[in-house]
């Protein structure tokens, strides 16, 4: 448990396989010859210590807190010479318009299978200023003349 807490404090991504390997090492170091680090053992350990397996998201741990503090100080002085309507933020996002849900409700014992995931997408560039005024989104597709704009002068 101490090793897991230490690993998570360092933002090390720990999967079940890694935890089982560490359990084997600890078992060997304690001389437990009959100990087997199995999936059942892992599940009981997770239940006992209220450990869940979650989707990793976000990039919060990517930034150095000291550099962030310095940047905020520099940013304030940079913004002084500009009006709020002239300061913009832009970001791009993918719009996967043909992707079906990856989860479904099903009856117990029912067999189900997935489908190939469509990778068709549009890239959108969204932009607004500090006052919240939006610019017209920029849509970037894969083809020079998409069919959806066939009779439209773009």
Automatic annotation (TrEMBL):
Cited PROSITE patterns: HTH_CENPB
Domain of life: Eukaryota
Entry keyword set: DNA-binding
One Gene Ontology MF term: DNA binding
Coiled-coil region list: none
Record flagged with keyword DNA-binding: yes
GO CC annotation: nucleus
Main location class: nucleus
Residue ranges annotated for the HTH CENPB-type domain, each copy included: 1-55
KW Oxidoreductase (keyword) present: no
SUPFAM superfamilies in alphabetical order: Homeodomain-like
Cell compartment(s), UniProt: Nucleus
InterPro entries: CenT-Element_Derived (IPR050863), Homeodomain-like_sf (IPR009057), HTH_CenpB_DNA-bd_dom (IPR006600)
PANTHER family: PROTEIN PDC2 (PTHR19303:SF73), TRANSPOSON (PTHR19303)
Protein name: Tigger transposable element-derived protein 6
Organism: Araneus ventricosus (Orbweaver spider)
Originating gene: TIGD6_227
């Amino acid at each position: 448990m101490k090793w897991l807490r230490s690993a998570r404090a360092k933002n090390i991504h720990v999967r079940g396989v890694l935890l089982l390997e560490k359990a084997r090492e600890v078992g060997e170091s304690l001389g437990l010859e009959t100990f087997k680090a199995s999936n059942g053992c892992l599940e009981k350990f997770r239940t006992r210590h209220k450990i869940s397996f979650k989707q990793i998201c976000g990039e919060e741990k990517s930034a150095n807190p000291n550099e962030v503090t310095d940047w905020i100080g520099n940013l304030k002085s940079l913004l002084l010479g500009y009006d709020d309507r002239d300061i913009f933020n832009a970001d791009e996002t993918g719009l996967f318009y043909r992707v079906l849900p990856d989860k479904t409700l099903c009856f117990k014992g029912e067999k189900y299978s997935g489908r190939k995931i469509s990778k068709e997408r549009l890239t959108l560039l969204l932009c607004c200023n500090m006052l919240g005024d939006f610019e017209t989104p920029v849509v970037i597709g894969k083809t020079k003349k998409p069919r959806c704009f066939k009779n439209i002068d773009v």
